[in-house]
Each structure stands twice: as structure tokens, then as C-alpha cells.
Design a protein that fits this description.
This protein is of the alpha+beta class. The protein contains two helices and four strands; from the N terminus they run H-E-E-H-E-E. The protein has a four-stranded mixed sheet, covered by helices on one side. Strand 1 and strand 2 form a beta hairpin. The longest helix has 13 residues.
Length: 73
């Protein structure tokens, strides 16, 4: 299964976890990974996330709050 297919299959369930604000493709040790973006990393949140999905490692990335920027047009 491609990483794109793995993301399509699991995005909804990952996004349903409180604290998760995004998912995407990334790289860990030069290998494809599934990035899970979180506002704040915690032991409890990390315990709720899988370490891998469909054979791809899951990489938790703490981003802080992400807000839309005003339209500069």
C-alpha cells in the first residue's frame, strides 16, 4: 500500500483524536513516514497514537497552535 493510500485510509481516525490538528507525509531516517501534527505533545496523546500504520512509522510533530493568516490581497 502506498503512503498516500495509508493516509487516505487513516486520516479520519487520526483526526478524531483530541489534540491532533493535522496529518501528512513526512520522512524519518530518509524513509517515508506518516506525520501526525499535534498542538502539544504529551505522554497521554502519544499513547493514543500508533507507532506505525500500514508499515509506515508514525512521527508525532508538535506544532503549537496553527491559525489561518489574514488574506493579504
Amino acid at each position: 500500500m502506498s503512503i498516500t493510500d495509508a493516509l487516505a485510509r487513516h486520516t479520519d481516525s487520526l483526526m478524531a483524536i483530541p489534540g491532533v490538528i493535522g496529518v501528512g507525509e513526512g520522512r524519518v531516517k530518509d524513509q517515508p513516514s506518516i506525520q501526525v501534527l499535534v498542538v502539544r505533545r504529551s505522554t497521554e496523546l502519544a499513547a493514543r497514537l500508533p507507532s506505525s500504520l500500514e508499515g509506515y512509522p508514525v512521527d508525532i510533530v508538535e506544532t503549537g497552535v496553527i491559525e489561518a493568516q489574514p488574506d493579504s490581497r
